[in-house]
Amino acid sequence: MGGKGTTGVERSVEQTLGHLRALDSSIAETTNQPLTLEDIYRDQRMRMVRLAILLVDEPATAEDVVQEAFTGLYRNWSGLRDAKAAVGYLRTAVVNGSRSVLRRRKTARDYQPPHQPDARSAESLAMLTAEHQAIVAALGKLPPRQREVLVLRYYGDLSEGEIAEATGISKGTVKSTASRALEALQKVMGHS
């Protein structure tokens, strides 16, 4: 998606989420995949927490989502093919757990008076430039599926097929959702 014909917003999204991915210096792609659950936890925990934060926009909730994903992985450890399958399992569990959190939030909002938007932590804001902050804020205004697809594409650096697998939607839907999400993001950024 970063080739010819990219819009300024698309480049900004890619740059911002790429910057966030670069912050995750503990994850190094190696030819030797972790073999134990402990290795996977150590190597993938912070990456999954960052993914969940981008989806639910609340660090404590994101950590809970990731902990539940690792608990599920532990329960299903003996049935997994290999460590790579475990990472895919975790990613899917984090996306699904984040969806559940967002559904519960929506239900709670329907029955309670609206509350102040969640503020981002000072640490996370300090790590981002003003442009990056605007993009992260704009991502929060997108519908959940559009936000998921963009975050998985640009932060997670996943292919359309991997995004389809993690979100449970078809590759064509991933492609059209990404396109609509970038257009919506451009409109939100244009009004800011």
TrEMBL record:
SUPFAM superfamilies given in the database record: Sigma2 domain of RNA polymerase sigma factors, Sigma3 and sigma4 domains of RNA polymerase sigma factors
Domain of life: Bacteria
Record's keyword terms, sorted: DNA-binding, Sigma factor, Transcription, Transcription regulation
One annotated GO biological process: DNA-templated transcription initiation
Pfam families: Sigma70_r2, Sigma70_r4_2
Residue span, RNA polymerase sigma-70 region domain: 46-106
RNA polymerase sigma factor 70 region 4 type domain boundaries: 133-185
InterPro entries per UniProt: RNA_pol_sigma-70-like, RNA_pol_sigma-70_dom, RNA_pol_sigma-E_actinobac, RNA_pol_sigma70_r2, RNA_pol_sigma70_r4_t2, RNA_pol_sigma_r2, RNA_pol_sigma_r3/r4-like, WH-like_DNA-bd_sf
GO MF term set: DNA binding; sigma factor activity
Record bears the keyword Transcription regulation: yes
Keyword Transcription annotated: yes
NCBIfam families on file: SigE-fam_strep (TIGR02983), sigma70-ECF (TIGR02937)
UniProt record similarity statement: Belongs to the sigma-70 factor family. ECF subfamily.
Protein name: RNA polymerase sigma-70 factor (Sigma-E family)
Protein's organism: Haloactinomyces albus
